[in-house]
């Protein structure tokens, strides 16, 4: 347990108000708040708050999760986390119960206030399946794949996409490709030992063929909301072994093909042995779940086609990670694994127009 001073969002009076507003607390009130533990990342600070009550609190929660930015001396955060704030404000309320943690309060960043998210604590009922970078068990992978399919299906070709929620991805990708040219040049100058002439030529062909490949996104069909950082450790698994998987950390969501998420989980993060063993059956399960959730006009071949195209696009990610100063111990294995998947799935053919 830490003894740090509490931000305003964690004060007892404020939490009492929030819990009453959410119907989780009656006449009792929060009497004390301590930080049970904390998790500090580059741009955010997450605290697990332990609450004590004055009066009969019934089933009011003993713990809550408070996520916010790092505060300066004026009590503001340079990082506004606009994407995740928007997700919990505008998107999460429309999702089926149990897809993401319940958010009790969303406060966006302004000139006078810092952003924060107050979330239900699932630590007692859920856990991360493995220690990074070890893969989950096959049964856990299946549960996670079903959870992603349910989330993707909930927003599949939703009429609000691009109009009320998010922006259409083709224009964003076209803009990023111009930025990537500079990132790639810097990467080649600094890390030429991992970029063979053959690989460099593939990137150049991808940049050349990019406008043609982006016609898939210009069609604005069979698109959905994607997480953007869908690794296995952004999935909270139920301790009882059931299917109540919760998806967390929504700082990078966007509109795209659903395979953007599942390619990242398998093609980029798994070595060939495991990927070759589980990739096909997990894709079969994923597609079957999409259909069971009401997705139509998207057959199994379409999933394979999108998967291969997403693998090809994902070779850009390690270069971007390096440009963002993510250490080589992260981006280099990602680079090698995604190229192994690229060759297994014959994705080079896509830039040759075959």
UniProtKB/TrEMBL annotation:
Residues annotated as signal peptide: none
Any one Gene Ontology molecular-function term assigned to this protein's record: transferase activity
InterPro entries named among the record's database cross-references: CHK_kinase-like, EcKL, Kinase-like_dom_sf
Domain of life where this protein originates: Bacteria
Keywords tagged on the record: Transferase
CHK kinase-like domain location: 117-296
Protein's name in the database: Phosphotransferase
Organism of this sequence: Bradyrhizobium australiense
């Amino acid at each position: 347990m830490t003894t740090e001073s509490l931000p305003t969002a964690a004060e007892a009076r404020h939490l009492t108000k929030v819990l009453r507003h959410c119907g989780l607390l009656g006449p009792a009130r929060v009497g004390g708040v301590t930080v049970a533990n904390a998790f500090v990342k580059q741009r955010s600070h997450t605290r697990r708050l332990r609450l004590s009550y004055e009066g009969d609190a019934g089933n009011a929660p003993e713990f809550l999760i408070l996520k916010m930015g790092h505060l300066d001396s004026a009590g503001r955060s340079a990082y506004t986390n606009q994407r995740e704030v928007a997700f919990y404000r505008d998107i999460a309320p429309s999702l089926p119960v149990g897809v993401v943690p319940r958010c009790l309060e969303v406060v966006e960043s302004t000139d006078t206030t810092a952003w924060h998210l107050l979330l239900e604590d699932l630590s007692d009922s859920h856990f991360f399946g493995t220690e990074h970078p070890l893969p989950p068990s096959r049964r856990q992978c299946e549960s996670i794949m079903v959870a992603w399919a349910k989330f993707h299906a909930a927003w599949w070709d939703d009429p609000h996409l691009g109009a009320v929620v998010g922006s259409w991805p083709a224009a964003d990708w076209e803009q990023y490709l111009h930025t990537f040219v500079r990132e790639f040049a810097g990467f080649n100058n600094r890390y030429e030992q991992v970029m063979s002439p053959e690989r460099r030529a593939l990137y150049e062909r991808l940049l050349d063929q990019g406008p043609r490949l982006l016609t898939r996104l210009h069609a604005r069909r069979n698109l959905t909301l994607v997480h953007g950082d869908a690794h296995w450790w952004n999935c909270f698994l139920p301790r009882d072994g059931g299917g109540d998987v919760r998806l967390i950390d929504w700082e990078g969501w966007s509109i795209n093909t659903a395979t953007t998420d599942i390619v990242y989980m398998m093609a980029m993060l798994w070595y060939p042995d495991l990927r070759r063993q589980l990739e096909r059956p997990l894709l079969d399960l994923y597609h079957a779940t999409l259909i069971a959730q009401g997705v139509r006009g998207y057959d199994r071949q379409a999933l394979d086609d999108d998967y291969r195209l997403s693998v090809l696009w994902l070779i850009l990610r390690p270069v971007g990670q390096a440009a963002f100063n993510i250490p080589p111990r992260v981006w280099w294995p990602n680079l090698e694994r995604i190229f192994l998947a690229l060759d297994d799935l014959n994705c080079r053919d896509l830039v040759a127009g075959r």
